[in-house]
C-alpha cells in the first residue's frame, strides 16, 4: 500500500511541471479570456461591468460594427486558408519525395536549404519579401522592367496581394511540413515497393496505393496543423500588405488586434478571439472525422 502511494506520488511529480506550464500559459489565459469577453472591458476604464453574452450577440447581429469586423476578417482568413493549406500539403509532400530520390551525399544539404527559412523571424521574412515584391523598387519589378514588361502591383492590388502572401507563406513555412513528410516516407517499408514492382505497378500506382495510405496519419497531422497555423495568420498580411488593398487581406487576427489595442475594447476583442478558437476546434474535429470517421466503426 505504501509502495503504491509512493508510486502515485512519483508519477504526479513527473506530471506536475507540465501541468503548471499548461495551467499558467494555456488554461488560465483561455479562462481569463472568456471572463473578459463577458464584461465591458475597456482598456482605459477602471470599471468592468458584467454584460454577459452581449458581445457575442452583437457579433452575430447584422448591421453592427462588430458583425462587419468579425465576418469580414473571418472571410479573408478563410480565403487564406483555402489558398494556402492545399499548397502547404502538396508542395511539402512533393519536396519530401524529391529529396528522398536525391543521392545521399547531397540529401542533407537540400533538407537544410529548404528548412532554413522556417528558422527566420517574421520581421526578417517580411524585410526579405518587401525587397522582392515592392512595387517601385522591388527585385521582381526591376527585373520585369529590364525585360520591358509592365511592373506588377504585388502588394497593392488583387489578386497579386494574395499571390504575394501565399508565396511568402510557402517559402517561410514549407520546410516544417517537408521534414515531417520526409520522416513519414522513411517509415514506409521498401518491401512494399519491391512487391509492387514485381506485380508490374508503375510510379503512380505505388504512390496512390502504398505511399498515401502509409503516411495517412502524418497527412492528417500536417493538414490539421497547417489549417490551424493558416487560421492564425497575422505576420504576413500585417507586415507586407497592412491588410490592403482596402481591407481585402485584413484577416481576423488583425481585426482582433485593432479592436483590442486601437479601439481599446478588450471585451469584444476577446469574444472575437474565443469564437475564432471555437471555429478552429470545430474545423479540426471535422477534418479528423472525415479522415478517420469510419475507423472506430470498422474496428
Automatic annotation (TrEMBL):
Protein name: Sugar ABC transporter permease
Transmembrane segments: 12-35, 80-100, 112-132, 160-182, 218-239, 266-286
Family affiliation: Belongs to the binding-protein-dependent transport system permease family.
Gene3D superfamilies registered for this protein in UniProt: MetI-like
InterPro entries given in the database record: ABC_transporter_permease, MetI-like, MetI-like_sf
Membrane topology note: Multi-pass membrane protein
Domain (ABC transmembrane type-1) ranges: 74-287
Keyword Oxidoreductase: no
Subcellular location field: Cell membrane
GO terms of biological process kind: transmembrane transport
Top-level taxon of the source organism: Bacteria
UniProt entry keywords in alphabetical sequence: Cell membrane, Membrane, Transmembrane, Transmembrane helix, Transport
GO cellular component, one term: plasma membrane
Amino acid at each position: 500500500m505504501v509502495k503504491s502511494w509512493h508510486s502515485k506520488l512519483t508519477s504526479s511529480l513527473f506530471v506536475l511541471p507540465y501541468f503548471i506550464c499548461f495551467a499558467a500559459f494555456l488554461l488560465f489565459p483561455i479562462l481569463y479570456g472568456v471572463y473578459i469577453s463577458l464584461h465591458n472591458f475597456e482598456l482605459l476604464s477602471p470599471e468592468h461591468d458584467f454584460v454577459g453574452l452581449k458581445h457575442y450577440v452583437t457579433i452575430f447581429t447584422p448591421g453592427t460594427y462588430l458583425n462587419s469586423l468579425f465576418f469580414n476578417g473571418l472571410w479573408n482568413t478563410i480565403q487564406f486558408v483555402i489558398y494556402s493549406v492545399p499548397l502547404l500539403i502538396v508542395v511539402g509532400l512533393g519536396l519530401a519525395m524529391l529529396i528522398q530520390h536525391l543521392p545521399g551525399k547531397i540529401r542533407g544539404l537540400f533538407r537544410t536549404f529548404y528548412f532554413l527559412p522556417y528558422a527566420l523571424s517574421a520581421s526578417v521574412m517580411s524585410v526579405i519579401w518587401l525587397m522582392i515584391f515592392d512595387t517601385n523598387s522591388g527585385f521582381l519589378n526591376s527585373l520585369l522592367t529590364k525585360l520591358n514588361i509592365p511592373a506588377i502591383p504585388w502588394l497593392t492590388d488583387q489578386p497579386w496581394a494574395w499571390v504575394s502572401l501565399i508565396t511568402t507563406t510557402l517559402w517561410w513555412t514549407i520546410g516544417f511540413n517537408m521534414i515531417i513528410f520526409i520522416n513519414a516516407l522513411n517509415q514506409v517499408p521498401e518491401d512494399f515497393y519491391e512487391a509492387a514492382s514485381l506485380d508490374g505497378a508503375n510510379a503512380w500506382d505505388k504512390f496512390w496505393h502504398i505511399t498515401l495510405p502509409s503516411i495517412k496519419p502524418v497527412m492528417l497531422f500536417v493538414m490539421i496543423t497547417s489549417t490551424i497555423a493558416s487560421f492564425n495568420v497575422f505576420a504576413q498580411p500585417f507586415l507586407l500588405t497592412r491588410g490592403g488593398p482596402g481591407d481585402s487581406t485584413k484577416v481576423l487576427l488583425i481585426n482582433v488586434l485593432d479592436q483590442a489595442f486601437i479601439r481599446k475594447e478588450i471585451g469584444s476583442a476577446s469574444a472575437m478571439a474565443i469564437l475564432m478558437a471555437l471555429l478552429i476546434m470545430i474545423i479540426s474535429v471535422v477534418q479528423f472525422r472525415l479522415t478517420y470517421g469510419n475507423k472506430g466503426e470498422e474496428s
